[in-house]
Amino acid sequence: xxxxxxxxxxxxxxxxxxxxxxxxxxxxxxxxxxxxxxxxxxxxxxxxxxxxxxxxxxxxxxxxxxxxxxxxxxxxxxxxxxxxxxxxxxxxxxxxxxxxxxxxxxxxxxxx
Amino acid sequence: xxxxxxxxxxxxxxxxxxxxxxxxxxxxxxxxxxxxxxxxxxxxxxxxxxxxxxxxxxxxxxxxxxxxxxxxxxxxxxxxxxxxxxxxxxxxxxxxxxxxxxxxxxxxxxxx
Lengths: 112, 112
Hints:
The complex is a heterodimer.
Chain A: E1 5-7, E2 10-13, E3 19-24, E4 31-37, E5 44-49, E6 55-58, E7 61-65, E8 71-76, E9 85-92, E10 100-102, E11 106-110
Parallel strand pairs in A: 2-11
Antiparallel strand pairs in A: 1-3, 3-8, 4-5, 4-9, 6-7, 7-8, 9-10, 9-11
Chain B: E1 4-7, E2 10-13, E3 19-25, E4 31-38, E5 42-49, E6 56-57, E7 64-68, E8 74-78, E9 87-94, E10 102-103, E11 107-111
Parallel strand pairs in B: 2-11
Antiparallel strand pairs in B: 1-3, 3-8, 4-5, 4-9, 5-6, 7-8, 9-10, 9-11
């Protein structure tokens, strides 16, 4: 099955740093979603994007729906320790099924 | 509102045993989904139910069956468990007017 190319696979952050990650696809999506997963928990929806070029913020998080509709970006500003976890992008073609295609995740850890 | 709930939280099975994973949502959502999450693989769709009374296969349906018992409940059954089914299983639901899916806390299944 198709999967999205999400990068980087992992990164280390120091408190206060800005973080960027992205997802790319060979297919066009109608919707991009970004989730965060803490250890032992289910994914939690952070941001939903519905229009090409759309830029949406949720607190310190900002996500963009790429204008080609084949990519999306997530930025976290001024990171804090509770930002650690795994971030997943998901694309949706739309339609009545509404099935999501997930990236493999970007793991955020604190710099030792 | 409990959101999406899943039982059990943990389960250990021997090869060949059967079990049913339970999922319920109290958000009056129309669509429900079952995913499995394996290390480095992201989330993969097993089965989904676009509405009460309908179910369809996802990307990795082999070895599983589902039942949409009513609008609230969607169960996943393993008839004869295999070690390859060791995974974390997530249930999700979606209202239908958007593509945002909301996840339960997961069931961690080990098959020995």
